[in-house]
Design a protein that fits this description.
alpha+beta; 252 residues; 14% strand; globular; single chain; L-fuculose-1-phosphate Aldolase
Length: 252
């Protein structure tokens, strides 16, 4: 199986329905939060144990209109039909390599969001622990400094080796990628990382000295974030509840 084009399928016939609906929800909320960029960027979920088979968004479909049936099933071992037409080549290359080489990256969300991308454009991409949210990412962000083009073939393989055991990859001169065991966890990381970057830039724009927490406090707070019970799942369920009321067609 190379590509499943399922936009005309009955809702009940969609395989991996939960993952598709979760991705569609994540796409729509990314658009609502203005973290998208035209019809670029891509989200995916691995559906095979080895990561070779994964779901990814249909190329050209706007995030704000994404539906469960717009999510395509591809196999990283077989170049899909419609590459460059219904499948974004960079999505196929980058997400294929990331899923194959990083077993913990079951869900991968990649965007060029405003504040994270601005951070990725700086020589100093560190995030000082200046508030509770920035402390979440204390010593917990992988940073790629070897940008060498738009993520095709060799570049995709290189990127996949940078993540390590982290859940956030700041892609120098490119944007950001978050990963998680579920869509909910990856989206929660994406949302709060963008907020952390926004807080940093707003604080810097004041021209005043930053109030940087001690290493001990920053590490303690980061650990508390990671152990907070059910936070990502509750966050994402709240987003689904809103779409169920206001835009239920995301499930179609």
């Amino acid at each position: 199986m190379s590509v499943s084009q399922l936009s005309d399928a009955r809702p009940a016939d969609l395989p991996h329905r939960q993952e598709r609906e979760d991705l569609a929800c994540a796409f729509r909320w990314t658009a609502r939060l203005n973290m998208h960029e035209a019809v670029a960027n891509h989200f995916s979920v691995a559906v095979s144990n080895d990561g070779n088979e994964f779901l990814v968004n249909r190329y050209g479909r706007h995030f704000s209109k994404m539906r469960a049936s717009d999510i395509m099933l591809v196999d990283a071992r077989v170049e899909p039909e419609g590459l460059g037409d219904v499948i974004d080549p960079t999505a196929y290359c980058i997400h294929g390599a990331m899923h194959r080489n990083n077993p913990q990256a079951r869900c991968i969300l990649h965007v060029h969001s405003k504040y994270a991308t601005a951070l990725s454009a700086l020589k100093d991409t560190s995030i000082p622990p200046i508030d509770q949210t920035t402390m979440r990412y204390y010593n917990r962000v992988a940073v790629d400094t070897g940008f060498d083009g738009m993520g095709l073939s060799d570049e995709a393989e290189r990127l996949s080796g940078v993540l390590g055991n982290r859940s956030v990859l700041l892609m120098g001169q490119h944007g950001v990628m978050t990963v998680g065991e579920t869509v909910a966890k990856a989206f929660d990381e994406l949302y709060y990382f963008e907020r952390a970057c926004e807080t940093l830039f707003l604080a810097l724009s004041s021209g005043r000295d930053l109030n940087v927490a001690s290493d001990a406090v920053a590490e303690k707070t980061a650990q508390q974030w990671s152990e907070y019970p059910g936070a990502a799942e509750k966050h994402f369920q709240a987003l689904r509840d809103i779409l169920d009321e206001e835009e239920p067609d995301y499930r179609n």
